[in-house]
Structure formats: structure tokens, C-alpha cells
Amino acid sequence: MGTEKKEVLVSIRDLEIKFDEYVAVSNVNFDIYKGETFSLVGESGSGKTTIGRALMRIHETSKGDIFFKGKKINQKVGARLHKELIKKMQMIFQDPAASLNERATIDYIVSEGLRNFRLYKNETERQQKVREALLSVGLLPEHLTRYPHEFSGGQRQRIGIARAMVMEPEFIVADEPISALDVSIRAQVLNLLKKLQQEKELTYLFIAHDLSVVRFISDRIAVIHKGKIVELAEAEELFLNPLHPYTKSLLSAIPIPDPRLEKNKKLVVYTGEEHDYSEDLPKWKEIKAGHFVWANDAEEKRYRMQMKIG
Amino acid sequence: MKGRDTILSIRDLEVTFKVRDRQLKAIRRISFDLYRGETLAIVGESGSGKSVLMKSLTGMLESNGTVSGGSIRFFGEELAQKKKPREWESIRGAKIATVFQDPMTSLNPVRTIGSQIVEVMMKHQRCSRKRAKQLAIELMERVGISEAAERFDAYPHEYSGGMRQRIVIAIALACRPQILICDEPTTALDVTVQAQILNLIKQLQQEEGFTTIYITHDLGVVANVADRVAVMYAGQIVEYGEVEEIFYESAHPYTWALLSSLPQLGQKGERLFSLHGTPPSLYHDIVGDAFAPRNQYAMRIDFEEEPPFFEITPTHYAKTWLCDPRVPFFKRPKAIEGLHQKMVMIYQGGNVSGNREERSFSFNSRS
Q1: Which residue in chain A is spatially nearest to B47 when comparing CA positions?
Q2: First to last CA, chain B
Q3: Domain range A8-241, CATH class
Q4: CB-CB neighbors (< 8 A) of A267 in chain B
Q5: Shortest CB distance from A251 goes to which of B258, B263, B363?
Q6: Among the partner residues B194, B257, B264, nearest to A257 by beta-carbon distance
Q7: pLDDT digits 0-9 by tens, B196-216
Q8: What does the CA dihedral B180, B183, B188, B189 come to, rounded to 10 degrees?
Q9: Domain residue ranges in chain A
Q10: How far is A235 from chain B (nearest CA, A)?
């Protein structure tokens, strides 16, 4: 992907999110381009889900801006924009068992969004939309009268995806959509997400802890640590030229499915003591086109040197 | 294999569950040996029976499950016949200990960490409370809890997920077991913590000399820890061998499918390999090879007759008709051919070294 002339769909500027006095996320800056898969990778408690939920307007933000198609959305919005955002931005969750109402039929679950916002003219149109959504994720219309427990984990995740797709969204936040699934089912769900992206020109924000999966599906990856994005680059660039010591540590920790490599790799441990931020304070810096890192002036200089040699 | 000391020997093991008057055969005649000091990884998807297999080794099957056939020999003792909880007391926890996926299911949330370790110490090592506390603090230090004495009186919720799992490991090791079963011990943990826990178990294994069985679905973890690997499908082991044989020379189409599904092998813009269909229902008797309906390499005999194990090397066996000498040849799928070279390309950015001895590996950028 070139960096020239891409349409920005989502834009986050100097975002901060607080829970009471606790700053969960701060100094977050990134754009998501239309049609791309942007991944936010971090460990538990890093704030990745918090950012996803702020985008979905589930969490309030304490500073900064979130724009969707140029409109600021992290504030009170008018009824019309609200309805548009509900439609255009959808979310897929990690645990398909926990995110589906066990007492509702698939028909009810998939149409709930349509019903709540009256997004159909008549019953025939509603049924039509639900059918299409179901077919698009590889389920069948006869599944409509069944309940979630009658489905396997992979199928349940398809129901969760159908529920999002029925709204005809442009942007989907997928929060660890395959972490709870078996290896062979993961590939199916990833293929499905890719297929839907191509067919419907979707844009994804993929939230994950597993860098190895993310590499295959992402155009760009941001690494988040303790509420701050420490590095952002195109997927291959990030894997081959990681700059921030936390990124290096995360990369070294992923188990490689190859015994010769895995048994001989060196673990890079990150403590945070690598940085001296006593006077020279860190900022969000672009080291080379499209490759950003959270660094102070001294580190920036070092990273630039490293890039030239590397 | 010659020269190896077998400490656990399983033959034709069958485990059956009774579910609403129907019989579910979760383990279908499994045989394997465990060698002293090794790490064996058992790989399989959910429902393959890997956890049931491990529970049958410690008498922890759910009440509707029974060992319905075969034998489990452990130091000359027959475990398959044990029924009552009391019969298991000398084995479970004492000689065979288990570390589970979620540390919170093993720890009591309303009791302090220290008291939980002390309880196990006193029970199995028959020492005084004072001595047990001393031993517990030593053990906490050994599993990497800093300031163990101060943290002795803390509750599980005051510990991080990684620290809790360290405590579970400490409790498991408190009675110096011969075998440590690790049932997805790091699945609930972050990757950086996972790496530390895997290293900790390895280090303790070297110091204590116990034998480890890992149950996992993560092939990265398998590559990290295993000396040998057994692949399970539909209640059976379908292939086993040394770790490099399974990754680089696999012979069973199900193993091929597992390896082919690795997202690392995906090419941008192309579909990832994915296995169609679902495993067979274990309520019914299975005719032929259980994997046949999902196997793109299946032959007619796969639907008619169950394959035996074929020897590939003295350490590597596969239960598939593809290995029958009457089959002229078979070819592994392209996706997993040259797996090692591909992984080197992926993780080291094209620096494929022809020299197999040069295995040093680091993530510092290419400089």
C-alpha cells in the first residue's frame, strides 16, 4: 500500500480516556484508511479494547478527538448522525457464547439492530435483510428459528458477524474475534472476514493480542503498551524493522511454530528502564514515511541511525 | 525406544461417558509410553479428548466417565482399575500433579496464597506448620515471586495472572511429583508472561528432573517445549514422533491440516487453508478412519477399515493408510513443504541461512 492519497475514514487525535482519576489511555494518534485492516495489538490491560469501545461511543473520552468521515463523534451528536453511526459502525466480540442472547432465536438476534432503529420498510424487507446477512456468513435461512446453543463456536462467531453485517456497516471493530476459537476454525473466520471486506468494501479495526495472526490480515499495525501507542507501521515493516524495545519484546515472545527457531530464540525482556525520560520527554514521531514511534529526541536519533544501517 | 526409561505406559485405553443413557466414547484405544525426563506435547482441538486423557491419569474424570478398557501402568502400579477417591490419594497431586489453564480455578479466592501452599506442604511432606511456611516461601522464590515473604499473606486477587500461575506451579511442585501435567497452562496469559512461564517450567524441570506432559492447541508452544509430540483426533492418537519429525516430516493428513492452518503460512490476499466439516460424533461407532470424511487425501479403504500405526522411523508413527507400503507415494501439501525455510523467511526477513548449524536467532533488526 502506498501512502499517497488514501481516504481517511477514522481519525484519532491526542485521545485520552480516564476512568475516574485513572488515565487508561493517552496520547493516542492514528488514522484508519478506508478499506484497510488496521490492527491494535497489546497485552491485557494495555487499553486496546478501551480505544475500540471509545470509537464505538461506549466509553466517554476525557481529551482529544475522534472523527468518523470528518465528523467529530466523541461528543453529543444529533439524532441523525447518531442513527447513521449506529448503522455504519459495528462491533464483533471475542466470545461468541457470551455476546449472544441464549434465549433468543437467531432471527431475533440478527434483526435486533434493524428493529431498534427501524431500518426496514416492512416485514418482507426485514426478512430479506436477515436472510442475506446469514447467507453472507455461510449460514442457512433454516438456522433462523434455532438458538445459539445449537451451534458450534465457529458458527456462533458467524452469527455475531451476521448481526453486524445486517446493518450494512462501513467500519467494523473486531475485538479478538478468533481468540476463543480452535485453530482450524480460526482460518475459516479469518477467510470470512477477508471475503466480506472485499465484497462490501469494509474497513476493520482489529483488536488482538496475537501478533502472528495480525501480521497475516493487517495492512498496518499499532502496538499499544500501558495506554500509550508505542509504535505504528505497515505490517511487514513492523515485523522486520521493529524500533521500540517493547515491540521487540512482544515479537520475541510470540511462540514460533518451528522447533528449530523457537528452541533457540532469545527472549527480549522489556522493563521500561530502557528509557531515560527525566528531561528529554517522548513524543509521537514519524521516523520514516508511515513508521511512527513513541520516542524522545535521543531515541529518535538512534532509531534513525538504525534505519539507515538496517 | 531402547535406552529410554519408561515411567508411564498406556495400552488400549478407553474412556466412556454416559450421557442421558447414551454412551460417548471419548478415548478410543490409545497406547503410548512416557519416558523419564522428557516433555511430551499432546496436540488436538477441543473435543479431541486430550483433556479427558489427562484426567484419566489422575482419577479426575467427571462422575459419569469411566475407564472402560485398557491399562495405565505407572511404576508397576495399575491406575486404570482405581475407582475410589482414596485409592487416588497416593498418586494425584503427590506423584502426578496438574497445572490448569486458569489459575483461579485452582486457587481458593478467599484464602491467602501462603496458607494454600502450606496446606499442601503439610499434607504431603508431613512437616510442622512453621517448617512448611519456611519451605513455602522458598518455593515461592524459586518460581520467581520476588519479596515472597511479604507476599505470603496476600490473596489471589492481589496477584497478577502470571504470578497466580507461578503459585499454581509452586503448589503442583510442593510434593515433588514425578509427572507434571500442564493443561494449556499459558492460554489465559499474555504472550510476554507466557514466555516467562514456559521458561520457568523448563528450568524447574531441569532442576527437579520431573517429566512433563503438555496439553495444548498452540503449535508455537509445542515447538517451544516439546521433545516429542502426539497428535490427537476424535479420541485417538493419530501421529506421534519427535518434535522435528512432526513439524518437518509429518505423515498424517490431520497433522498436515493443523500445520497448514497456521496463520504464519498465509499469503496476503490469499485464503488461509481451512479444514471443512466437523469431527465425527463419538456417540456412534466409527467405521474406518475417523478423519476420512474431512480428508482430501482419503482413499476408499479409509471409509471401510481403521488404519493401524505405520512405522516411519523408530521414533515416528502415523495411523493413516497413506503410509501403507502398498501406497506408491504420498506428497505433503505444498503449504507445509519447507516449513523451516518459510519460517526463517518470515521471522528473519529473508536471511535464509543454508547452514543448519547456525541457529542463533534474535529479533534485533537486520544490522
Answers
A1: A182
A2: 44
A3: alpha beta
A4: 195-196, 199
A5: B363
A6: B264
A7: 899 999 999 999 999 999 999
A8: 30
A9: 8-241
A10: 11
